[in-house]
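User: Teach me something about this protein's shape.
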Amino acid sequence: MNSINTTFDTPVLELKGSIMTVIVLHLKATDAGRLYPQLEQKIGKAQAFFRNAPVLIDLSDLGEAEQLALDFTELASTLRGMGVVPVGVRGSARSQNERILHAGLGLLPAVKAERSVAATESQPSTIQDTTQEAEEAKLVANAPQQTSSAIPTKVITQPVRSGQQVFAPEGDLVILSSVNAGAELLAAGNIHVYGALRGRAMAGINGDATARIFSLQCNPELVAIAGEYLVNESLAPSCINQCVLVSLGSKGLQFDVTGSFTPAP
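Assistant: First, the predicted structure itself:
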């Protein structure tokens, strides 16, 4: 009788740890009357940005009693209804773990030190804590060592592909190539794209209303400055595929079709 070979010559899967792009929702209170309207306002302002984005719920600022008052199933269902994907909870009290798992959410330990706006790796807003995947680090051309008073600029020399997110937490972001549809750029300062901008670009993510977006060929899915945004369908036809400077004025985003521009210092 021939024996059955239960070994596999060629593996068909591999498990690896990875640093993934994820939005972190930091809860400060659990009162449903305040929580859900504020979520709707926050996410609704930029649905194109948040659509299908993975969300990690952080409870580090809540005591055990406050966590007990939170309906995790309702929270997860509400987030999904807003178009985002809740994937897990961190910083929860041990007594809440069973309720969290019952809601279909994963469990992660609380981080030892939170990133802040002033830190080297700051989060782009009060509900976001974004890092790049390890593969994206290969794209970064690191600037020379900065002094403590200097604002760093992140420079990307290769095209930013669909599904990638590039984050400049403190200063400007410079892309020396094109940004494909489905890619995302986030910067605390200005964004410069020396090529086609077809993805999403969000400048002034920490509230800097003076930030600007420069693009040699402007056809983005979304552009935003300090929370004010426009999607591609709302752009004037005269801006499409033109050299454009985007700034924030008293009436919202302004598009200056310049033909050419000199990047801001």
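Now, about its shape. The longest helix spans residues 32-44. Residues 113-148, 261-265 have pLDDT under 50 and may be disordered. If you'd like, I can walk through any region in more detail.
User: That's plenty for now, thanks!
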